[in-house]
Amino acid sequence: MILPEVYKTLPSYILALSKSKPFKGLQVSSDVRNYHAHRMNSMPVRSLMHYLYPQLMALHDLEDTAALPDEYGRTRLPGVTRTSHTFMQANGIYLIDNEETSILWVGDSVSPQLLLDLFGVDDILKLNPNI
Questions:
Q1: Which of 57, 88, 101, 128 registers the highest number of CB atoms within 10 A of its CB?
Q2: Rounded distance between C-alpha atoms, residue 82 and residue 88, angstroms
Q3: Max CA separation in the chain (angstroms)
Q4: What pLDDT is attached to residue 38?
Q5: Which of 122, 101, 120 is nearest to 110 (CA)?
Q6: How far apart are CA 70 and CA 13, in angstroms?
Q7: What is the pLDDT of residue 1?
Q8: End-to-end CA distance of the chain, in Å?
């Protein structure tokens, strides 16, 4: 069966929707489910897509022009990879963003020089988890 291009990601979004807070059942209180259901109904489609399937950006392997303004003043974001732990490396630093919450994930095998450059410490155990 040949699907149009826009339907190729539909299974991923349906799976993400089934794992969201309004559909979690007994694991989430009814007030929280109701809040998130109303919030998701009021979101624009683009925001809902990012909320259900967050963006994963590798910060340890940036291009030279990433995160710097171009000649028009626009900042180019780093490239986005598939949001899955199988695409994450233990020696990497990643930003996971769903437009509501941002998580900075630091792998346990990240190089001390990269830690020193980004955070000013050379040991992962010295990092403040509440940055």
A1: 57
A2: 9
A3: 53
A4: 94
A5: 122
A6: 33
A7: 64
A8: 48
